[in-house]
Amino acid sequence: MHPAFSIIVFTTLSGLGYGLAAVLGLGILDPAAMATKLAHLAALVLIGVGLLSSTLHLGNPQRAWRALSQWRSSWLSREGVMALLTFLPLLWSAWFAVVEGRHAPVAGLLGAAGAAVTIYCTGMIYASLKSVQTWHTPLTPLCFILFALSGGLTLASLAGAAGGGDALWPALGAIAATIAAWIAKTAWRRRMLSLRPLSTPETATGLGSIGKVRLFERPHMNENYLTREMGFVIARKHAAKLARISFLAGGALPVLLLLVAAALSAVPVTAAVVIACAALLHYAGMFVERWLFFAEARHAVMNYYEG
Amino acid sequence: MTSLPTERSAKKLGLVIDLDVCVGCHACVVSCKEWNTGGYGAALSDQDPYGPNVSGTFLNRIHSFEVVPEGGEVIGEAGEARIVHFPKSCLHCDDAPCVTVCPTGASYKRGEDGIVLVDEDKCIGCGLCAWACPYGAREMDLAAGVMKKCTLCVDRIYNETLQEVDRVPSCVRTCPANARHYGDLADPSSAVSIMVAERGGIDLMPEQGTRPVNKYLPPRPRKPLAASAGALLAENTTGASGFFAWLDGMLDRI
Predict the structure, then answer these.
(1) What is the mean pLDDT of chain A?
(2) Is B84 in Cβ contact with A207 (below 8 Å)?
(3) Is residue A241 in some structural domain?
(4) Which chain B residue's Cα is nearest to A72?
């Protein structure tokens, strides 16, 4: 599948934002600290930029509001509805933190629940597609949720340390979530690598009863929408290497840095710098992970194109 | 509404494509593009139309496949090695996954005849329906930013201003080999249903659970070449009679 830049930015940034918003909603940071107030704003900005980015790949973004109508059947519609609904408790929660300097437990919990459901809907957009076997597993939304949580806890521990407070617990939480996320992702990747294709050129053409089916001529000499959108293969050459890079940047190194930060939690400024490095690496790792998520996925239509 | 219709009529309009007959001439591709670029919804645009990287929106494309049986690389060696020309357009599935994923209600399946359509005024061009379709039946028009797909020529088949013979999809009307047939596949007495029953019509990718309405008729078994060649082409002339027996005798004597 074609890894559209806008979709990668959308899923990674909004994932990070919702993760942070959910952690803030649980009220584990000092609501009076300036860093916590900034974290609330940062979560809203990340979510907002992510959602705006998602409209960039639309052919007719001026009609995007229509996407709120089909929540009965469409995960994409559900995601849009949940994203908008979740803004209410998140804004409420951010208002209390930024303006009044206190935690709003009800709004916080509602926001955390809304964030989790929104991310789940994002994951289900992909997991619901039977035509892309790699994505068609409950592990897909699980990975989305755990990566959002791991990124959110990393940013929350940054805010905790930067606010001069105790970053030990959020940092330990971030370590646990990052490990959990990579366990889920490893299971996801193992499943992908061991998949037997559900559809083959033989079933796609119905000619398997005669023999092995091989493409002789494409319909047209040049690329078309289908081969550009569904037949992306550039990253597959370096897929294994990129997967290791995403694990290092998005998992192993942030966990090491967070351990260092946890050990340094008595010196919040140093801890904050270390956690900031962990957060940047984490985002880079997520970006590569999401790129691969698309680039490695094979669409059933490629059975007609030998892709 | 992008839920699949709950109340369906007994009608399932669709195509039957005869893979034994299709010669891969692409006439249906051209006539489809010609009719539908001026018909239902936005025009079917081309990008870089006179340049080296020309590409465009098509609702119907013809692939060609080699089918090679085990141990039968060469035609006639073993099995039925052959080239099969393979027209592919929307199959108007009963359980159309492209319909239910649509976030806006633009993509829908009609209850009255089962045709899957896109209401282009509602389409935001997100492309999710094209991802959901395992067959590649949907293509985004890059100029209009809306999803295009086969309409089963809904603006022909019910069009009473056309002569009755023309009230079939453009691809069917134009096929010079008569490889494409249109009709009601829910009616067991329709010509298309009889064809499907007699020739063992098949679904594409049944494992995807889409329950396509369109059916494909598999190529007929081949006759070995020797079965068509008469005895007179062979080395052996025993059994020849009449003029050929006389000719055989004369030629032997020369």
Answers:
(1) 93
(2) yes
(3) yes
(4) B3
For the question of an ipTM over 0.90, the answer is yes
Domain hosting residue A254, numbered range: 5-56+66-204+227-304
Using 50, 70 and 90 to split pLDDT, how confident is the model at A11? Answer: very high
Q: Which fold has domain B13-225?
A: Alpha-Beta Plaits (3.30.70)
**Residue A46 forms part of a structural domain:** yes
For residue range B24-83, list pLDDT tens digits in order: 999 999 999 999 999 889 999 999 999 999 999 999 999 999 999 887 777 666 677 889
Closest alpha carbon within chain A to B98: A129
Residue of A nearest to B142 (CA): A59
| pLDDT confidence of residue B26 | 96
Q: Do B1 and A220 touch (CB under 8 A)?
A: no
Task: Count how many domains chain A has.
Answer: 1
Low pLDDT (below 70) residues in chain B: 1, 75-78, 224-235
Residue A217 lies in a domain: no
Whether residue A174 is contained in a domain is answered as yes
Closest CA in chain A for residue B26: A219
**Helix spans in B133-190 (H):** 154-157, 170-174
Q: CB–CB of A132 and B63 under 8 A?
A: no
Interface test with B, best of A2, A132, A200, A301 (most B CBs within 10 A): A301
Residues in chain A with CB shorter than 8 Å from the CB of B54 are: 222
Q: Distance (Å) from the C-alpha of residue B241 to the closest C-alpha of chain A? A: 40
To 5 degrees, how large is the angle CA B148–CA A220–CA B140? 20
* Residue contact B105–A70, C-beta within 8 A: yes
- What CATH number is given to the structural domain containing A187? 1.20.1630
CA distance B126 to chain A (A): 5
Residue B163 phi, psi dihedral angles, 5° rounding:
-65, 150
Chain A residues near residue B88 by CB distance under 8 angstroms:
219, 304
CA angle, residues A112, A117, A119, in degrees to nearest 5: 95
pLDDT confidence of residue A252: 95
Q: Is A118 helix (H, G, I), strand (E, B) or coil?
A: helix
Residue at token pair 């905790």: A160
The set of residues, in sequence order, having a beta carbon less than 8 Å from that of A223 and lying 6+ positions away, is: A231, B53, B55
- Cβ(A205)–Cβ(B84) under 8 Å? yes
